Amino acid sequence: MTTPKNAEPASSAGVTPDARTATAIAPCAAEATERSRVALGSVPGNVHEAAVSGSDIDTENDATTPLLSVRGLSVRFRMRGGRYIAAVTDADFDLAQGECLALVGESGCGKSVLASALLGLLPGNAQTAGSARLGDVDLLTADERTLARTVRGRRIGLVPQSPAAHLTPVRTVGAQLEETLRELTGTRKHDLRAAAERAAFPVDHLGRYPHELSGGLAQRAATALALVGDAPLLLADEPTTGLDRDLVDRTVDELRRHVDEGHALLMITHDLAAAERIADRVAVMYAARIVEVAEATRFFAAPGPRHPYARGLLNALPERAFAPIPGMPPELGDLPPGCAFAARCAYATDACAVQPDFVDGIACHHPPAEERAARA
Q1: Is the separation of the CB atoms in 20 and 32 below 8 Å?
Q2: In the prediction, which pLDDT does 31 show?
Q3: How would you label 239-271 residue by residue, b for 16+ Cβ within 10 Å and e otherwise?
Q4: For residue 194, what pLDDT is reported?
Q5: Which residues of the chain have pLDDT under 70?
């Protein structure tokens, strides 16, 4: 199965690449400036201004406690003229050790913004609400010093959406990999060959600079940097972009081994074939909201997705109905008051003028026919 793998444009939510992202790849990079925290006004959830110390971080969990617990996570951006863009609204999900959650959806729906919020890498005009707890730490309230020195790279590894833009241009891949290993492990003795091979990065390219790499090689270099710290949680934002199918499978299988070793993985992707290969659960995002969360076995096989948008994503694949979803997603700065998918949905009724609640893994007024019969 193949699907378009275009990177989600950050500009859709008023976000631009920021030098602070480099600290998530190489923790020894210069500390980022303190992030601003401002009230959200009408956005649901509590405003975040508190800070925590690095000693508060504890990601030890028992079998029943999720490694990451996200509740009501909302992000909006203040634009010129006082206008706001709601990029993420009321995201709720848990992620356990040894589990992969694939976050899928069309470009511009807010997936990458959600990941940036978890790492504290949002620009200064971003406002957040809700909570995102990694052990005893709320990632949305942690100060920049805590995030830079004790979270990024050590507790959370990142495979960025645009790796070539975030690799240090004046240092070789090998030098960056060695420095990251030294910073995270505290020792100068490292096996760079093993670290590179783990992400299918050719060892004979370790002496090359980022500008000498293809897009695919840059992606693999970023993956190697994300894996070396052995962080409990890995955020992979389009980790297979620019790779051919064989390398996609190899990269996904390596990430799956990382999960099977007891780590957690949040994988943002347009590639539904990759998601099917690696995911335990699938979360579908549309117009800043998560509209369905399902077990991967159910989602990709029988009985299939429950939300009309999620069914449309699968039906657009060449291996399936090859029928694209009609219309275009709404702009995040001009969302309708009710269901954002109603204008593109064949099942839409007057009830869709009201935003549906997220209940039993789905936010929809019109679940599949068998569910409607059971509710009757």
Answers
A1: yes
A2: 34
A3: bbbbbeeebbbbbbebbbebbeeebbbbbbbbb
A4: 86
A5: 1-64, 187-190, 369-376
Rounded distance between C-alpha atoms, residue 224 and residue 141, angstroms: 29
What is the Cα–Cα distance from 67 to 136, expressed in whole angstroms? 10
Cα gap 11→331, rounded to integer Å: 12
pLDDT at position 376 = 55
Place of tokens 């890995």: 234
Computed from CA positions of residues 77, 146, 224, 105, in that sequence, does the dihedral angle turn out positive or negative? negative
Q: Which amino acid is at 50?
A: A
CA distance 243 to 236: 14
Count of beta carbons in the 10 Å neighbourhood of residue 144: 16
pLDDT of residue 197: 86
pLDDT of residue 375: 56
Q: What's the token pair of residue 206?
A: 């370790």
Report the alpha-carbon distance of residue 49 to residue 182 in Å, rounded. 33
The tokens describing 348, both together, are 């839409």
Q: Is the dihedral of CA 222, 224, 230, 232 positive or negative?
A: positive
pTM of full prediction above 0.70: yes
Angle (CA) 337-6-259 rounded to 5° is: 90
Long-range contact list for 338-342, CB < 8 A, 24+ apart? 339/364, 339/365, 340/286, 340/287, 340/288, 340/289, 341/286, 341/287, 341/291, 341/308, 341/309
Which residues, other chains included, contact 55 with Cβ-Cβ below 8 Å and sequence gap of 6+?
none
